[in-house]
Structure formats: C-alpha cells, structure tokens
C-alpha cells in the first residue's frame, strides 16, 4: 500500500533564521526546522521538490545540526509542536475537515469502496488493497449553504507504482446542487506525486444548498493510493491570501537557483532586521512573502510567485500591499498568464521606493483560467528587496469602468430564427442561403435538431466557376482568447481542399488571415471544427466558400456556430453538462443486462450494413455513438441500455437525446422510466419505423420525485436494414423549453421528399 507522508505544505524558514548560529534553538526556530524536515521527506526518503525549496543552501545550519541529532530529541520536539498546534487550533468552517480523528460529517457511499480514516497520519485514503481497476470510492460532505463566493482548498496526494498509465488513477471533486439529479465536475487530477499537493477551486455564490463530493477512481496500476489530508472551505476568492497559513493559499514559488520568494515574519523581531512587520497583523508574528537580492549572480535575475489558477470566470479589482527597498534598479511586475503560457502585463513598478506598506490596485479580467504572477527582477546583488502581503479581490472594478461587456453569444448562431449577428457581402454572388430540409431518406437535415435551418452555399441554383460566398461575423474585442466551434458538411466536390475556409479579419489593419480550411472530411456528414485564436486588435470571423470550377463545384453546409472565451480545450471542460453523455470515452453511467452480438454497441464511422444506420456520430461527425446491429438480431429482439440510479427531484426534468432511424425495415425505439419500488416500467416516448437519414433530436419532459432509472430500448425490425443509433444524451433539471416545437414523424417516405425551404 502506498501512503502519503503526514507532512505539512512546505514553507521556507524566516530570513533571520538563516543567520543564526548552530547553538541557538528557540522553540519557533525548531518549529521552522521541522517544517523544512517535513517538506523534504515525503514517503520516507530525502527529496527536494525544486518548485518548493530553492536549494539546500537555504536550509539553516542550525536546522541541519538539529535534524541530524538524536531521534529521541526529534520525537520530543515533534510532540511539543503537536501540542502547540492543537492548542492554537481554530474551529473549522462548515464543510472543512483536517481528518484528525473524524471525518467531520463526511460520509462514504457504501455502494462503492470505502474511504479509510488513517488515525496515525491524519488523512483519509483509498488504495488497491481495497479494490481493483475501475472501482471507485465516493465521499460526500454534509449539506452546506453559502450565498457568498467561496474557495475550496484540497490537500491531496495520488501515489502510484508507475509514472504513466493508459487508464490512470484519478481524484475528482463534484458539486451536488439541491434539486438536481447529476453532479457538476469542478476539478480532476491524475498526476502522481511524492508529496502533498494543493488544489484551489473557486465556488460561485448560489442560493441552493449543496454538497461536496469526492470521488477516487482506481486505474490500471497494480499498486496505487489516493489520500486527502485536508479540505478547507472559506468565504472569498482563492486568489486572495494573507500568507498566515502554511499552505500559502496555493501560491507557489517558481524555483530559480539564485532568487526566490520566501515566507517572512512569524518570529520575534531582530533589531537589526531590515525586513518589516507584516501588513495583516502589523506584528512580528504575522507573515508575508518577500524576495531579496542577496544571492543574485546575474543581470536581471527573476523571481516569480504564481497564484492558483482561476477556475471560474471572474472580473473586478485585484489589490495587494507591497514594500520596495532598492539600492539599484528593481522591476516589480504583475502579469496574467493563460494555460498556453501567454503573458499579459497588467501592473508595474520600477522607479519608486516604498519603506512602508503601499496599496496597489489593478483592474482584473479572467474570463477563462488564468494565473497571476508577481515577478521581481534584480540588476545586482545589492538591489534591495520586495515584500508582498494581503492580496484581495473585489467584483467591483478599481476604476469607474463598467466591466467586461462582450457576450460570446453575440457571435454565435444556430440559424433557426435568422442569421443572428452574421451578415453577407453580396458583391461576389448570391452568397449563403438559409434553408430547411424536411425529414427524408436521402438528404441530411440540419445539425441542431434535424428538423431546422442551416446555411447552404454553392447550391445547384448558383454554382458557377469562381463562385465565392462570404459570411461575416460580428466584431469581437482584441487581446482575448477565443474558441470558435462550428459544424460543416460538404457534398459533390472531387477535391475538398479549401472548399470552406475561415479567415480572421482585423478591422484596424484591413488584414485577412486564414486560420482554418477543409482538408478531408466524410461526405454528407456534419463534422465539427474547433479553432482557438487570439488577436491584439478587434476582429471578425469570416466564413468563405469557394467554387473553383464548373467541373468541381458542390454544396457546402454550415450550422451551429458558437464562440466562447478561452481555449477550446478549457471551455470543453467548463461548458460540459453534468448529466451529459456523448459516448466519446465510454458508455458513461449506462449499463446493459447482457453483452453479446444483439446488445447495444459503441461504434464510430458508418455501420456495416448498407442503406441503414448513420455515417458518423452527432457530436463531432468522427466520434462514437451507440447502435444496434440488426444483422446480428432476429425480428422483435430487444437491446436495452439502462442509466444508473438517478436522484428524484420535485418539478419537471428534461431528457434530450439524438436518435438515428434510417432503413426500410426499421423497428421501434422506446424510452421508459423505472421508479424505485415500482415493479412496472412507464413508457415515456416511442418512435416506430424509418424516420430520416439524419440525426433527429428527441425531447422528453417527465416528473419523478424518487430514485429512478431511464431505459432506452431498441427493437429490431423486419429486415437487416433496421439499425438504430443514439447519441448525445443530456439530463437537465426544469422543463424542456422547446417542447411546443417538436412534431412527430413516422416515416421519411412522403410526397415532399428532399424538399428544401428557402
């Protein structure tokens, strides 16, 4: 069994202890030495984590002598420190737990593996001695309520025998809101470590009661463990810090061989000390962060203090207190850094000297995950020092500005009502047409619902050599990172290259830059494209379709354009719904009573039998879906996909999914609800026979105030051309907003087959 070391988060000793002789051992000095000891001995062997301890030279000589002393003395001091820690302990806030002698109201869900409270190490853990690959342990907090913005800090460790694994052991943290059947994933970690790590998660204010859910999932490793040392929930923002706690609010020193940030204060003041009282308590016992030039060896040596990454969009005023003493030039700069490593300077001081604590305020916008970096650059070893304390945040801007006004929805459109904020320049030709295809057995409908509108260029009515259709999006502010997603389908071209391209039009420079173009894609399949981009100036997105010649001209379709802030990788996690299953990774929380050739199968691409089944999935066009293979079944045979047990809520719930029923012999698709305690299932929805060659959206509105399961049943039809597929299942609380727009279709074989509405 792998266990995590019962160590505190590493901190550096106060500056004055580095200068003490070997024979001076005040109690506070020994406490500092023990902190160093715990920092460098995770899991029983000496180890110096570079980001946390700058070098072995920073360990005081007195500490080294003390730490190499007799083991009995070490135990004596350990006991003394432990008594002091208990004596000075403060009452933890609701939802917080140090797991000293209890789980503080946190309970294991005994449907799964148990979390074990380790009384000696003061942490809870789950490991491979209790379970096998794929099994999980679930820990649920007591019911919590806070209408203020909160910060969750989690001190944890994942320990494994191997560094990499195809299916790694992971720790997930969910938010369970009252009145919702599914939990919201807030955070996930899978990287193993040899020491305790800290995660900081912002929790937006809500009027609903909620619970915190910790889920440990065992991976492929033969020997692995997940341990949680502490959970702490405080009011305020995770980016705020007064540096009074030893975890430093998750702020990390970016290790440099010569210049680093240290913890200052927390000791009886030395009359010769050049370092100040802290700002929080105005006391020698208070703490702050500082960096000095004593070890500077090169020109422009840089020290960086990095904040926890923001985990939810936030904007307002970031403030902090600082002191700057300089004998030669010091540059003190504040940056924002996104997940791609791009820096943006938001504040700077390089020519003033502050011997007292000074307040700095700066407007701060983090619409996507950002880190704040406090950077100090020295020009010489006699450069002086910079001290930092009391970082705070307010949702009100420091200046009189009203805040960040751009709404990404303004640059998004599904074309169901009109062109939204998109427009065309008709100088090159008729351009893009907004069309609608009724359900049929030959032509694909729109991507949004299968029954709605999309844009079509290069139609048979307008095909001509050199035809160009341009679609312009609205203006978007510069210096922000965007994720552009859209769906396209291409028909009739011999060569697909450049049949559809995306350009960025920078208004101030009248410059167009191509950022994407079609290379190859399945013909006639709605395929997703996603592009991350950032421009310094205001810009527009331009979609361009080009018909190169009369002999190589076809149709280009466009639908469901969406813009979000941040990289596409990040926004995918932030925008994902808790009750959603796209089948891209697995079958989610759905199960089957039996698995054989006549069951539901997970597949990508076209189904084996011709003239039935989809050509691609609904999510991306090249991903996975679930389907029944009719050639492996007999007439009337059933395949059933059952959800996990869902929590009942008062009020209506909406189940959305996409289904594909194409083929002359298509049978039945049924959706049932099975309530806890009931012997019978209740039919919620049914479709019979061939519906369309395209994916259609299904909406089901139902009510259930007790635990229940949803069952999706496919029944094989009269011939092998009766494959049935499903994809993109989504459970949501509340009524289905578009129920009134849904019409039922029993067959695609009708008089208006292939009809296009303009």
In short:
One of its GO terms (cellular component) is membrane. The protein is mainly beta and 758 residues long.
How would you characterize the overall build of this protein?
By secondary structure, the protein is mainly beta. It folds into four domains: 107-235, Jelly Rolls, CATH 2.60.120; 248-394, Jelly Rolls, CATH 2.60.120.200; 408-571, Jelly Rolls, CATH 2.60.120; 580-733, Jelly Rolls (Sandwich). The chain contains four helices and 41 strands. The chain has a six-stranded antiparallel β-sheet with strand order 28-25-30-23-22-41, with no helix packed on it. A hairpin with a 6-residue loop joins strand 36 and strand 37 (682-688). Helix 1 crosses helix 2 (61-67). The relative contact order is 0.08. Mean pLDDT is 80; it is low at 1-90 and 740-758. This is MAM domain-containing protein.
